[in-house]
Amino acid sequence: MIGYISDNLLLPILDFFYGLVPSYGLAIVALTVVIRLALFPLSAGSIRSARRMRIAQPVMQKRQAEIKSRFASNPQKQQEELGKLMKEFGSPLAGCLPLLVQMPILFALFATLRGSPFADVPYTLNLKVLPAEQIAAVEPKPFSSASHSIFVTETDHVPVIASLPGGTKIGTGDNVQIQLQTKSGEPFAEVLDGVENGKSFLPDWTVTKGESIVSVSEAGQITALAAGDATVEGKIPGLAARSGFLFIKALGQVGFYTDGAVNWDIAILVGSFGLSLFISQLLSGMGMPANPQQSTANKITPVMITGMFLFFPLPAGVLLYMVIANIFQALQTFLLTREALPDNLQAILDEQLKQQPAPAAAGGVPGSRLPFEPKGGNK
Length: 379
Description:
The protein is an alpha+beta fold. 49% of the residues lie in helices and 16% in strands. It is built from 11 helices and 13 strands.
């Protein structure tokens, strides 16, 4: 499903924007904005639900405890009253459904930006070499890798798979040829014959595990040397993997620290991601009563996630998408926090804010209105 969305939805949009402005960096920005706009209603539902649950949760927990205590001997009545409570305030799980619906599209977008043309595309084959006397008893099971859309020009791409007709189990002394072909069965090499400088897109095959078990030629022919497990990998160069954008040296560049040097463009992208995430979390709490636990989480979470991306390498193009998506999310959160609440929730919020201790600021007046609290609540 993710591959289908990528090939039939995201890549055509990407082609369209690249046709308007021949910049893969701008195409990533435009693609991100389009997808976020398309998902706006779903993500808005999640943001609204989270905001309302944050207000209603203390009241709901108190009333749930009262209902369970009052109707402890009458489970049917207890469920009836709990149902009325959910109808009044909504279910805490209501915000999960919009997230689940949009996840396939977001995963497909993520996969698209990690593949061609923004990064080199790997094809990995895990092999098992058996002694010659054992391989005869093994039933051949043809192997085909996942399909990847490979850009051979700025706007032309073909779905390519790597296959082994005899399967991944081979006998010592055997030679097998890795076949790269389109989904329709056309050899990838023939596709490249009609492409300028097409040979530059041929994969570079290497043995990444078990060099004493198998060897592989530049043309992708595997020779089984001894019994054991081995892994062969081929990488097809990404057309835009080494293309820059603004301060980004290469959209396909991976890693904060490589070859003994700091990649400052990656550092800036990761830092921007953490800052935009922090701002989005601050905006989600606008007009809400102070919550020390939530405040601590809002400070720690961006730091933890940012630190993870420093040591969990992602291509620069993916990080660019994440920064743009976070900025969009922050703007969406800000707009939705200005929406009027239902009367019952607004009354609860007003009461919570009245019970909030006044901030101990120099020159502050006890009980004065918080800077972010509009007159009359959120109405």
